[in-house]
Amino acid sequence: xxxxxxxxxxxxxxxxxxxxxxxxxxxxxxxxxxxxxxxxxxxxxxxxxxxxxxxxxxxxxxxxxxxxxxxxxxxxxxxxxxxxxxxxxxxxxxxxxxxxxxxxxxxxx
Length: 109
Fold this sequence. Notes:
The protein is built from three helices and seven strands, in the order H-E-E-E-E-E-H-H-E-E. The protein is an alpha+beta fold. It has one domain (22-108). The longest helix has 14 residues, at 69-82. Residues 1-14 have low confidence and may be disordered.
């Protein structure tokens, strides 16, 4: 039961990527989605079906890139709601290190 959209069969791939995760937040256009795995505590932010940020079970936040202006707003909102880390800290960390949302500790990516 997968929907095929104008990008091909992306919906099937997206459903595989979120297996085990429960949707927690959608914006009105569903361009921003947050999923949480209740078993591990991991949180994932998707913007336009692209995994942008993830918090692992130890609390380390990794961000794969900054992308478009809209995605940057999604990242900023995610930081405000789920972490005590600012967007500017994330911007600085992309590709260099991951940040712990609980302690602020930096670890090589």
